[in-house]
């Protein structure tokens, strides 16, 4: 049977239990470490921008908005306007052969007849013009167009 | 430096650092060993001791001197220890026995206890106590703190503390006898 253990008769290791002591010089260094921990860390502000930190929050917000708007305005004014080319001038510079090739090769089934322009009726409505012409007159007018030019 | 002098100097921003340095020098050993007895390992005790003094720095200006500075610092240290043990248990989902086993393993690794079988058994027996009872045991047995002061530190009545300590002693004696 085990001998009953009596705490009052036990050799007391006061004021602390028999644990390993902390590292050497621990209590000499702890006050210094504590002082380092409670000191506020220096704010790392880039030189030249320190004045920003001095501004109040609303002023900083207003300043940021102004800078963004100024950026948009500058971008708008500095962007060169797109050159406006008259579509009719551009078409006029395309050789007629290329135009004919393009139109006849397209899926729109355009024939030379569709492209024929009757002198004196260019600005009239096609219906009113053709209704007043006989088939012979139309054929004669179409024959005046060079077929070779069209297929080249 | 007396506590009143430390407090007066701390209130003056010009001498605040000097006062705090004196405070740490005065109480560091008591705080460290109070914490160390609860968490066993030095590294954890070091972290918690620093946390205690950080709290002291942050709240000393509002200290109303309802209790002595010594008692107030002890109360902060006690709460830090109990919170640490609670969070450690919650973090790792450890039941009571596992955290006891973990702290017991640290005891066995402690060089100072090597070869002292009875002392090792005693320390292991103390570890089997619930955290708050262990705290009461440490304050009474090792620090020999008066019950009235213990009541201020723990926020428990003197009668309850006496009963808690009495039961703790019986449990410890039974554990060491059976071991």
UniProtKB/TrEMBL annotation, chain A:
Could you tell me which residues belong to the region Disordered?
Answer: 1-22
* Top-level division of the source organism's lineage: Bacteria
Protein name according to UniProt: Uncharacterized protein
TrEMBL record, chain B:
Record domain RNA polymerase sigma-70 region: where: 23-90
- Cite the source lineage: Bacteria, Pseudomonadati, Bacteroidota, Cytophagia, Cytophagales
User: Which species does this protein come from?
Assistant: Hymenobacter psychrophilus
Record GO terms (molecular function):
DNA binding; sigma factor activity
Name of the protein described by the UniProt record = RNA polymerase sigma factor
Domain (RNA polymerase sigma factor 70 region 4 type): residue spans on this chain: 121-171
Question: What biological-process GO terms show up in the record?
Answer: DNA-templated transcription initiation
Which keywords appear in this protein's UniProt record, sorted alphabetically?
DNA-binding, Sigma factor, Transcription, Transcription regulation
**InterPro entries tied to this protein:** RNA_pol_sigma-70-like, RNA_pol_sigma-70_dom, RNA_pol_sigma70_ECF_CS, RNA_pol_sigma70_r2, RNA_pol_sigma70_r4_t2, RNA_pol_sigma_r2, RNA_pol_sigma_r3/r4-like, WH-like_DNA-bd_sf
